[in-house]
Structure formats: C-alpha cells, structure tokens
Amino acid sequence: MPADQPLAMVTYTFCAEGGPVRLIGITLKDATNLTVVDWGVRDYPPLGVDIGEWNGRVLGDKSFSHDPVPGPCRHPQRLSELDISVNRSGDEVGIAHGFEVETSTGNLFVRMRIMLCPAACPDSSDMSLP
Fold it and tell me: What does the longest C-alpha to C-alpha distance in the chain come to?
C-alpha cells in the first residue's frame, strides 16, 4: 500500500441501546506511521454488496455519513456499521492497536489491530494487543 493512499475498512457493527447517539471522532491507539483519514456510519446490513475494504475514503461512498446512530437495539433492524479509512504516513509499516470512538454519551474502545505495509505485511498472528 503506497504511503498517503487511504484504505477504507469495515471495523465493527453496533447499536445504541439508549440511542440515538452521535459519533464525534475516532482516535487510533498507540499508532505508528498511521493516521485516520475519515470515518462514517451506515445502516447494517447495507443494501447491495458489502466490500469489506477498498482503496479510498469512507465518505467517498455516499451510503456513509456522520448521522446519529439510531436506537434502540433490535437485532438485526437497528444495527449500524462503522467504517474508517487510514493511511500510512511514512515509509515504514503503519500500525495501531485499536481505536477510541468518542460519542455524545461517552467513549468506546475497539480492540482491533490495523496494519498497513509498503509491501507484504509480516505475520502478526503471534503479536498481542496491549
């Protein structure tokens, strides 16, 4: 993945029991050579094909927005999908050990390793999250 090329990815699906809840921002945890480009939410499951990840920005897909996440939780009708796009900010491997989601009612930590590499990524299956 070239440096400064955004990669958008599905991160997780969730609901807002006391909803609606507005997502305010995304902060990567312990990030090295990796930055958030943008993020967005949409209803889940999405209409049409769900790609999983793609080159580009999340908000380049018009099905995503910064609209509040509706509630209450009623699986599967009231789930939302949060996608983020990140890019490597240097020539080395870009990595983050999860991210914090700031909402209008508090913060949520998402345990997820995000890694972008200039070529093939090293096998990180034996690495543990902090």
Answer: 44
Q: Which pairing describes strands 7-14 and 53-55: parallel, antiparallel, or unpaired?
A: antiparallel
Q: What is the pTM of this model?
A: 0.84
- CA torsion sign, 68 to 5 to 119 to 90? negative
Q: In this predicted model, what pLDDT tens digit does every residue of 19-39 receive, in sequence order?
A: 789 999 999 999 999 999 999
Which tokens is 49 given? 């094909």
Under 8 Å between Cβ of 39 and 115: no
Helix (H, G, I), strand (E, B) or coil at 102: strand
Q: Is 41 helix (H, G, I), strand (E, B) or coil?
A: strand
- What is the mean predicted confidence (pLDDT) over 85-105? 91
